[in-house]
Amino acid sequence: MRAGLLAAFLIVIWVADRQTEVLDPIRRAGLDATDFIFDLAAVPGNVWQALSEASRSEDAIYNRVDQLERENLVLQAKLQQMVALRAENSRLRALMNAGPRERNDVLATEVVGVSPNPNRQIIAIDHGSRDRVYVGQPLIDSDGLLGQVVEVSSDAAQVLLISDASHSIPVQITRNSVRAIAEGTGDLSRLRIEYLSTTTDVEIGDQLVTSGLGGRFPMGYPVAKVVAVDRTDGARFATVWAEPLAQLSRTRHGLLLFPEGILAPEVNLGARAPAP
Amino acid sequence: MIRDALVVLFTLLVAMLLSIWTADVSGWPQLIDWVGLVLFYWVVALPARVGVTYALLTGFVFDVLSASPLGHYALIMTLVCLFGQLIYMRFRKLDTLSQIALIFMLTGVARFVDVWLASFETQAVTVTPPLLTALCSALVWPLVMQILRYFRRYHGLTEW
Q1: Which pTM was predicted?
Q2: Per the CB < 8 Å rule, is B125 touching A40?
Q3: Percent of chain B at pLDDT above 90?
Q4: CATH of domain A81-258
């Protein structure tokens, strides 16, 4: 009798939290209170990293610095080109009477853990609403899109990866601007590209970027690379598989994208923002 | 009294950390249902002390950590706890192999309820196969039980 009542009570709570937003404040308070568990879980990894850095020889460090300096030089050169291209692009867009392209600010964040949920692919990051992180915000790494924020507390947030089975994202092929939807499959190394007819021009190796449709993800961020195209005779749509470009399983650092102008310049490097 | 509660809560916290670590290292979240195992141990060892309150607390914390709707894991943990309270007398008398078999069934059922609830929440493809969780959890049970038993005796926790 008591057990039945308890189960009924829990089912009511479960339905209420799924269907309505009544319990959201409680959930946020819970996330605030349990933040420390992810922080604790990150301790061994951090200690390991600190130890392996401390044990690295001086030569190795010099080599690393040397390599980073060279990389930096190459990136700087590309950036100069990029500034010129951006100016040219906005002039051309102005000529075509198109509005200016949206630009993004970024905030560096650290991945502190993988959610223990066996049915979804969620990671925890160490910035929250105090740093103006919001639900639906895109997270990228140095190679491509990682996912979007689904839960926010004051000092932490949880991010749903693009490979999660419930996640879909509007993309387009860079080569010919064909639009499609990339759906997660639950496998970290596979996305399924939906709604491309068998006659569509898509090839292995094509790069997919966010199309910006739907308004959630800004346009032009790399998402995945096509790895398999299967055109069965008589089928309406081709079966196309793509591999995410971001390192979904290994990444330790990510960048949160903000619409331009929201962040103060000094927060860009990952320092904590003062409470708003 | 408070110290005893802290001992139990500490082991549950360690179980949660282990869940996060195994998800991180293996890429299979909940390959081993650490929290379920630890909760079940305490219910079987101290049925008069560890009951639904602990199950609810653990379940709600796990809901928040795993970004599930509140009540999802609370319901599963409560089921594990109620099952433990039903069979603790008989369970203690079982030999290790039978215990492993029973844990396999219990964690299997718990994971199927989990997948069933998740299927209402999203059109989810489960990342970790439920029977793999059941198998791995059953295999580590003797170890978990020995460690927790040692821990319980070290801190002098008895049933009454």
Answers
A1: 0.85
A2: no
A3: 72
A4: 2.40.10.340
